[in-house]
């Protein structure tokens, strides 16, 4: 055989083998790269997917775990920014409410209750759409945006950064962010800021790209470069009525997409404690007038205030209200029905500026005499009451291997449930004697009227102090039998005088 031919065949064979090896390595590298991309939830070059249900640990590596009824490991105690996904970041702020923003133990995992969520694209890119995956069975969404257009679960616009304001419980499983080059033929949509809801008036500021002109409307129509409401960016004006503010930014021949934000004026309803006792539904923005009202019971930050023959519970209002102090004046609050009981809570306008609070001259209790029959007829809600000559009994109910003990105050055929402070009366149950009880009437729980004894036959527990939110979070937890339990206990619990269900 010709040696030259043999050499050519051999060389060709080696080249083919080398090409196969090179191509094999390229394919393996490409596959590895593709798998790496998808492992971080990235679909395409112009898309970033934040799968909080599946990838929360990768997205938020600083979290110790997830939150649940027995754990706060997933709470955001400070602003938290995800690792970038295709250059996009997702920042969840610390909550502005008493409930922490957090990663929950079940879907939807990202749960926000106050503060902001900020989505930011890489430099030179603008976000054009964000699609949020919510719970299909019970979608929770309370969000506003200062740029672009927002509907439930969907945002559209053209901006490098999108700030979402969380107004209450919002739960997100996944967020898909679409973005593109910040083209020289477009400019970012302006941001619209201002307080809502607001009292009286609010200053609205519209900020567009540097050097741009702002055009805006207040009637819900989309603005154009011929709109009559206009000014240089940043533009500020005062709004004194409810309106939808829509705005565009114009620079030369460039026009942004429309930004929109709803503003709502708040009107307070004048009310007295007697009025609160007639309300059948929750009501925001109450201007409560008090005339020589008296603080008759303080248990942590549960404060009972009586005026005339009616009372209401002041729950975590932030007001300093000591036992037996006298209150007159006006205070702005929100109203809720808690266990059928009239309750007021603080809002952003709550303060003591309009109140005159006269310090107590005595530490003696001032209960109103009542009968169990009156309590069962729902009189004296949120008041300190005194029952005279009642017996104390208990009933044990066994379900499976669990026995629950319930204590009652009895008068004839009438009885009412006692809870909390079990050490005051558990030893008296079934002794055949009559007793005098001073208690807070805390409302109806699960359809059952209940009172919380403070004093039995002159034996008291010192509850008349005001605690802080931190004290509340760390306060002891009891089951219905009065036994102290930890945060992992499942079922009905009592903490700071309030009942709740730990799931």
Strand % is 35-45%
Helix content: 10-25%
Biggest sheet details: 5 strands, antiparallel
Number of domains: 4
**Physical arrangement of strands within the biggest beta sheet:** 1-15-9-12-11
How many separate helices? Answer: 5
Mean pLDDT: 84
Q: Any low-confidence stretches, pLDDT <50, length ≥5?
A: 3-22, 25-45, 462-472
User: N-to-C terminal Cα separation, in Å?
Assistant: 86 Å
Structural class of the helices, strands and pairings? mainly beta
> What integer value in Å does the Rg equal?
32 Å
Gross morphology is: elongated
Oligomer: single chain
Total strands: the figure is: 41
Question: What are its keywords?
Answer:
mainly beta, 12% helix, single chain, five-stranded antiparallel beta sheet, 503 residues, 5 helices, Immunoglobulin-like, OB fold (Dihydrolipoamide Acetyltransferase, E2P), disordered N terminus, 45% strand, 4 domains
Overview of this protein structure:
The chain has about 500 residues and is mostly beta strands. It has 4 domains: about 45-180; about 190-265, Immunoglobulin-like (Sandwich), CATH 2.60.40; about 270-360, Nucleic acid-binding proteins (OB fold (Dihydrolipoamide Acetyltransferase, E2P), Beta Barrel); about 370-465, OB fold (Dihydrolipoamide Acetyltransferase, E2P) (Beta Barrel), CATH 2.40.50.140. It is built from 5 helices and 41 strands.
């Amino acid at each position: 055989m010709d040696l030259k031919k043999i050499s050519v065949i051999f060389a060709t064979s080696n080249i083919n083998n080398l090409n196969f090896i090179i191509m094999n390595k390229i394919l393996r590298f490409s596959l590895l790269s593709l798998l790496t991309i998808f492992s971080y939830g990235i679909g395409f070059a112009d898309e970033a997917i934040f799968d909080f249900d599946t990838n929360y640990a990768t997205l938020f590596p600083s979290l110790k775990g997830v939150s649940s009824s027995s754990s706060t490991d997933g709470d955001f105690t400070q602003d938290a920014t995800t690792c970038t996904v295709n250059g996009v970041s997702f920042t969840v702020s610390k909550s502005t409410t008493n409930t922490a923003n957090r990663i929950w133990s079940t879907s939807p995992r990202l749960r926000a209750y106050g503060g902001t969520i900020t989505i930011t694209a890489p430099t030179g890119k603008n976000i054009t759409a964000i699609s949020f995956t919510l719970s299909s069975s019970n979608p929770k969404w309370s969000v506003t945006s200062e740029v672009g257009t927002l509907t439930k679960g969907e945002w559209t616009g053209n901006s490098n950064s999108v700030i979402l304001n969380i107004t209450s419980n919002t739960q997100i499983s996944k967020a898909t962010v679409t973005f593109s080059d910040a083209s020289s033929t477009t400019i970012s949509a302006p941001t619209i800021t201002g307080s809502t809801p607001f009292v009286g008036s609010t200053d609205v500021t519209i900020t567009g790209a540097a050097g741009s002109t702002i055009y805006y409307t207040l009637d819900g129509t989309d603005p154009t470069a011929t709109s009559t409401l206009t000014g240089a960016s940043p533009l500020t004006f005062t709004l004194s009525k409810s309106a939808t503010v829509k705005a565009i930014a114009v620079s030369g021949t460039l026009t942004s997409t429309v930004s929109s934000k709803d503003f709502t004026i708040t009107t307070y309803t004048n009310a007295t404690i007697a009025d609160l006792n007639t309300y059948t539904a929750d009501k925001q923005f109450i201007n409560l007038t008090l005339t020589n009202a008296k603080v008759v019971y303080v248990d942590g930050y549960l404060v009972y205030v009586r005026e005339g023959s009616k009372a209401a519970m002041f729950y975590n209002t932030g007001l300093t209200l000591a036992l037996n102090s006298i209150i007159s004046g006006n205070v702005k609050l929100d109203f809720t029905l808690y266990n059928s009981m009239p309750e007021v809570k603080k809002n952003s306008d709550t303060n003591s500026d309009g109140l005159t609070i006269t310090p107590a001259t005595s530490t003696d209790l001032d209960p109103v005499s009542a009968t169990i029959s009156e309590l069962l007829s729902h009189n004296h809600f949120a008041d300190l009451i005194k029952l005279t000559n009642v017996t104390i009994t208990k009933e044990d109910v066994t379900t499976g291997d669990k026995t629950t003990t319930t204590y009652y105050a009895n008068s004839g055929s009438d009885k009412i449930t006692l809870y909390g402070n079990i050490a005051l009366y558990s030893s008296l149950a079934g002794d055949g004697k009559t007793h005098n009880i001073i208690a807070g009437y805390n409302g109806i729980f699960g359809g059952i009227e209940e009172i919380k004894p403070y004093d039995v036959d002159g034996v008291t527990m010192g509850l008349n102090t005001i605690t802080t939110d931190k004290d509340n979070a760390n306060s002891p937890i009891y089951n219905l039998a009065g036994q102290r339990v930890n945060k992992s206990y499942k079922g009905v619990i009592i903490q700071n005088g309030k009942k709740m269900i730990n799931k």
